[in-house]
Each structure stands twice: as C-alpha cells, then as structure tokens.
Amino acid sequence: MQNKDSLMLKKEIRGRIEGFVQTTIREGRFATRWREPLVAFADAEDPLFGELKRAVSESHAHPKDLLPEARTVITYFLPFDFSIGDGNLAAFLASPVWAQAYVDTNLLIGEIGGHLEACLRERGYEAFVPPATHNFDSQRLVSDWSHRHAAFIAGLGRFGINHMLITEKGCCGRIGSLVTTLAVGADSRPSDEFCLYLRDGSCLHCAVHCPVGALTAEGYDRHRCYAVCLQNEEAFQEIGKADVCGKCLTDVPCSWVNPARCGDKKKE
After folding, report:
1. Which residues contact 206 (CB under 8 A, 6 or more apart)?
2. Integer distance in angstroms from the first to the last C-alpha of the chain?
C-alpha cells in the first residue's frame, strides 16, 4: 500500500504535467491542442525492465543504465485533441495537421521533461530525461529506450495489434517518460486486453488502414512502415522532422478511448 507522502508526491507530479500542458495551450505557442494528460509511475527495479533486452532490443537500457540510483520511472501520455484525427485517412500521406501534431508534441515532451527535471532537482532528486524520439537505430529501427514499453510497465495502457499503446484515452497522442531517484509507489498494470482484436478478434481496422500493408494480424513490417514515415518527413520538412504516418491510429475504436470499456470513440 502506498503511504500518504507517496500519494501526495504523485499528485503533485501529475498536477505539474497537467498544468504545463494547460499553460502551453493557453499561451498558444503551438498550433496543436491536447486533452488532459494521463500519468503513471513504475518502480525502476520492476523485473519487466530487464525483460526489455529480450522483448525490444539487446541494447535496450535499464532505468539504472540511465541513472544508477534510479528509483522511479515517470511516464505520461499526451492525447491529441479530437480534431487532429479528422482527415488523416483522406490521402496516402499524413494530413498536415497530424504531421504538425507529431512535431509539436515531440517538442512539448522535451519541455515537460526539462520542467520536471528542474522541479525534481529543486527537491534534491536526480533525473534523466530521454529524448522524445529519434533515439533509435536507423538500420534495425529499434530504440535503446522505448517510452511505450516504459509506459506499459507503469500501467498506462496495453499494447494493441497496431503495436501502439492503447490508454484509457486511446492511442492518438504521444508518450514521454523520465527516470528519477525519487521513490514513489508504482501504479498497478491492467490485466485485461484493451485491443478488441487481441480481446476477441472483433476488430482489425488498424491493419485495413495501413497504406502499404505493413501491419497485418500475422505481424508488423517495421521497415515498410518506416519507408512511409520517411515519405511524410520529406513532404513536411518545412515544419520539422515529421517522420510519422498515423493511419493505423486514425478512425479506429481505440483512437480516443479504451474500446474494451467504452464503445463511443469520443466519450471521455
């Protein structure tokens, strides 16, 4: 059971992330808007972090590789505003709004990480903030720190057949994480499947939406997927590094909610 101090610290961190996003929207520094973030905490010594060297990559870092005295991994999901998904299936390439949201959210994750790191250091704790993205091997297309897997371990959601993390607010958004010496109680992981295909085989819309057939029930061709992302990067180079697609996240039951709990895709 988590003690009162631990619960208060977690509440404070959640509040800081939520407040940072709200302030960012109010200031209008980005074209993108987000819904209220989700935050979850993992014990840095959770055995599943050791399993990532097998599940993701032999070179995948353990939290203690990033910060030797690590005690907690803080993870958060920044769900896009509903309007960002509109129109992303209209053409082969990603919509301009989707590409902008990807670029903006990666920048916001960097800012949130820096803000939390400064707050933690003021309280006497160390922190390490991995980059939001583009920290992967360009040949194998695997990362040495997967925000999605860290968030899964923290209980933020469950993986779908589209290889995205489905949270209680769906999978249209971006995930950030950081490692800290602050010790707080870990959140529990959901045990039930969120993905309708993995739950009962009733949905495979994400695979149908993939423009190049990189995603099927039998597997995922990450190189074919990334080739499309690179086409989008070239098309949207004026706004930043938009190596993204998002078709498998768009207009599917898990876009905005956990479909196993809620049938209305836009119900909060």
Report:
1. 160, 161, 162, 215, 248, 249, 252, 254
2. 28
Strand blocks (E) in 29-172 = 38-43, 72-79, 127-128, 157-159, 165-167
Give the Å distances, CA to CA, from 259 to 84, 245, 265: 19, 22, 7
What is the bridge-based pairing of β-strands 157-159 and 127-128?
unpaired
Residues 6+ apart with CB under 8 A from 268: 35, 169, 257
Determine the distance from the C-alpha atom of residue 63 to the mean position of all C-alpha atoms in its chain, rounded to a whole number: 17
Structure tokens that stand for 211 in this block: 């423009």
What is the spatial distance between Cα 156 and Cα 14, in angstroms, rounded to a whole number? 13
Residue 170 zone, left/alpha/beta (φ > 0; ψ -120 to 50; rest): left
Q: What six digits make up the tokens of 47?
A: 């055995």
In angstroms, what CA-CA distances link 197 with 137, 175, 203, 204?
Answer: 30, 23, 5, 6
231 burial type by CB count under 10 A (0-12 exposed, 13-18 middle, 19+ buried): middle
16-66, pLDDT tens digit by residue? 999 999 999 999 999 999 999 999 999 999 999 999 988 888 889 999 999
Distances (CA, A) of 134 to 26, 56, 152, 202: 28, 16, 20, 34
What is the per-residue pLDDT across 223-250, written as a single tens digit (0 to 9) for each? 999 999 999 999 999 999 999 999 999 9
